[in-house]
Amino acid sequence: MRDPRPHSGEPPALDLLNTRWQGTEPGDLLTDLDGVRTWLTLLDLADRVPADPRTLAALRATRSALHDAVTRAEYAPLNRVLAHGRVRRELTEAGPREIPEVDDPAWLPGWLAADDLLRLLAAAPQRIRQCAHPDCVLFFYDTSKNGTRRWHSMATCGNRAKAARHYAKDRPVQNSSSSSR
């Protein structure tokens, strides 16, 4: 199955948030096991995690927890997701290695996404953004040089906003007091 989402390729935490979207055809990648398989494949986890109802439930719970943390500064649900795992560190001939360990394989993708959000927050929390278009629910990590990106995609939401401003500017003002003959 191909990825039907209008925006992908963000860091795992935001990519999981973007499994639900609005638009002419609103969608949710996590409605069935095919969508779970698609998302696991995109994150190179398909061979490590079963695309089953338990993984689907864990991903939905994690997506909700990520959303609460990013939009409402509510951290308890995210901490419950993080409680399912930890990072074990070891030294190998190739150097230090971090190995995520979870109490249930179904929680691995969600736990990795939650852990990724912590990494993003530690690096630059102000660069985690929701698209500025009023009808868009997608998130992005602003990697622009000056940190002023407003849209998840200039080609879609940015152009729609520009077109709306242009239309409003060029639209003739209606005279509310029409003359009668």
Q: What oligomeric state is this?
A: single chain
Q: Give the structural class.
A: alpha+beta
Strand order of the largest sheet: 1-2
Shape: globular
Biggest sheet, in brief? 2 strands, antiparallel
The name CATH uses for the topology of the domain at 12-124 is: Jann2411-like fold
Q: Could you estimate the helical fraction of the residues in percent?
A: 40-55%
pLDDT average, as an integer? 88
CATH superfamily of the domain at 12-124: Jann2411-like domain
What integer value in Å does the Rg equal?
21 Å
Secondary structure tally: strands: 6
- Low-confidence segments, given as residue ranges, are none
Q: Could you state the order of secondary-structure elements as H and E?
A: HEEHHHEEHEEH
The CATH class of the domain at 12-124: Mainly Alpha
Total helices: the number is 6
Q: What would a concise description of this structure say?
A:
By secondary structure, the protein is an alpha+beta fold. It has helices at about 10-15, 35-40, 55-70, 75-80, 110-125, 155-170; strands spanning about 20, 25-30, 85-90, 95-100, 130, 140. It has a domain at about 10-125: Jann2411-like fold.
Describe the structure.
- The chain is globular and about 70 Å long.
- With 181 residues, the protein is an alpha+beta fold.
- It has helices at residues 12-17, 33-42, 53-72, 76-82, 108-123, 154-170; strands at 20-21, 27-28, 85-92, 95-102, 128-130, 139-141.
- The chain has 6 helices and 6 strands.
- The protein has a domain at 12-124: Jann2411-like domain (Jann2411-like fold).
- The strands form 3 sheets. A two-stranded antiparallel sheet has the order 1-2.
- The longest helix has 20 residues, at 53-72.
- Strand 3 (85-92) and strand 4 form a beta hairpin.
